[in-house]
Amino acid sequence: MNIDPPYNTGNDFIYKDSFKIDKEEYEEQIGLYDENYNMMFKNTDTNGRFHSDWCSMMYPRLKLAYNLLSEDGVIFISIDDNEVENLKKICNELFGESNFIANLIWKSKSGGANDSRFFAVDHEYIIVYAKNKSLFSLKKDKEATVTTLYNRKDEIGEYSLDRLDKQSIRYSKALDYPITGPDGKLYYPKHKDPRHPNATWRWSKEKVKSNYDELVFENGNVYTKNYKKEGAIARSLLMEDRFGRTRTGKTDCYSLFNRDYFSNPKPYKLIRFLEMIATDKDSIILDFFSGSGTTAHAVMQLNAEDGGNRKFIMVQLPEKTEESSEAFKAGYENICEIGKERIRRAGEKIKTEIEEYNKNLKIDEEPKKVPDIGFRVLKVDSSNMKDVYYSANEYTQEKIADLVSNIKEDRTDLDLLYGVMIDWNLPLSLKHKIEKIQGVTIHMVDEGSLVACFENKVSETVIREIAKLKPLRAVFRDSSFVSSPDKINVTEIFKLNSPDTSIKVI
Question: What is the pTM of this model?
Answer without folding.
Answer: 0.79
